[in-house]
Amino acid sequence: MANQSVQKSPAEPEPKFLSYLLSQEHKHDCYFMVGNRKLIQPERIGVVKKMLMAHSDVLRAELEESKLAEKDDVPLEDLYPDTFITFLKYVYGHDTTASLIFDEADNLLYVAEKYMMTVLKSKLSARLITLVSPDNICQLLNNPACYTTLELQSTITG
Question: Where is the BTB domain (predicted)?
Answer without folding.
Answer: 28-100
